[in-house]
Design brief:
4-stranded mixed beta sheet, globular, mainly beta, 11% helix, 8-stranded antiparallel beta sheet, 3 helices, 29% strand
Length: 225
C-alpha cells in the first residue's frame, strides 16, 4: 500500500501499489495527482504530484479512500489570510532554502539571484513554473523604537504556476495557498538562519517560541505564535 498526501486538500490517502506512477483524483477534493513511486518500502506519507487538466477518472479507477488522521497525526488547519499585514515580513521557501522576500518597502517581491535578491517583476523569466513552495509569514509587532518577532505561520502553495503571481502584485500569492505549510528540517534551518542574519539581535532575542519551532523536527505544525 502506498501512503500519500493530496496536493490539494492535504488529505492522507492509501493507494494500491499497482497505481504507482498513474494519475488519479482525490476522493475528497477531486484534485488530480500522480501516485508517487516509493524508492523503497516506507510507512511515511509521500507528497503526490499535482496534475493540471487531467481527464475525469473512470469509475473503477479511483484510489483508495481518504484516511482519517488520528488526533496525534492531524494536520492543524490554518486560516488563509486575504491580505498582507504591512508590518510583517513574508518569505517563500523552496525545498532547500529562502527563495523570495517581501517587505513593506515599496520594492515588491524580491527573488534570490546569483548576486542577492532582485525584483521579481523585472526578472519574470527567472520565476520557476513548478515546485514545492511554502509561503512563510514572519509576524512582527511594532514597539517603541522598532519591531519584534512574535510568531511565524507557513502555508503550502500550489505546485504549479504559483510563483508567477510574484510579478503581478504583492498579495496575489495569497490566492495560490492550498493548505497549511509543512516545513522540513532543512527549510526550518534556512528560515532561522535568514532571521538571525536579517534582523538585529533585539528583534528576535525574545522570540524563543519561534526559534524553538524552527529548531525542532515537527513537520505537521504549520507555525507558532
Amino acid at each position: 500500500m502506498i501512503r500519500l498526501v493530496c496536493p490539494g486538500c492535504r488529505s492522507r490517502i492509501h493507494a494500491k501499489e499497482e497505481l504507482a506512477g498513474l494519475v488519479r483524483r482525490c476522493p475528497k477534493c477531486r484534485v488530480a495527482f500522480r501516485v508517487p513511486k516509493p524508492e523503497f518500502p516506507t510507512d511515511e506519507y509521500l507528497e503526490a504530484e499535482f496534475i493540471e487538466g487531467a481527464p475525469p477518472p473512470e469509475p473503477d479507477r479511483e484510489v483508495a479512500t481518504v484516511v482519517p488522521p488520528s488526533a496525534e497525526e492531524a494536520i492543524r488547519p490554518v486560516d488563509v489570510p486575504d491580505k498582507f499585514v504591512r508590518t510583517n515580513v513574508y518569505l517563500i521557501c523552496d525545498k532547500s532554502g529562502v527563495y523570495a522576500l517581501w517587505e513593506n518597502n515599496g520594492r515588491g517581491w524580491q527573488i534570490k539571484g546569483s548576486m542577492g535578491f532582485v525584483s521579481a517583476r523585472q526578472n519574470t523569466d527567472e520565476l520557476p513554473l513548478e515546485g514545492d513552495f511554502q509561503l512563510i509569514e514572519l509576524k512582527m509587532r511594532p514597539v517603541e523604537g522598532g519591531i519584534r518577532l512574535v510568531g511565524l505561520m507557513s502555508y503550502k502553495l500550489a505546485p504549479r504556476y504559483a510563483l508567477l503571481s510574484l510579478a503581478k502584485g504583492d498579495e496575489d500569492i495569497l490566492s495560490k495557498i492550498v493548505g497549511p505549510g509543512r516545513l522540513t528540517r532543512e527549510q526550518k534551518g534556512a528560515i532561522k538562519l535568514f532571521i538571525l542574519d536579517k534582523f538585529m539581535h533585539h528583534v528576535w532575542q525574545d522570540a524563543r517560541a519561534v526559534l524553538d519551532f524552527l529548531s525542532n523536527a515537527d513537520y505537521l505544525t504549520p507555525g507558532v505564535g
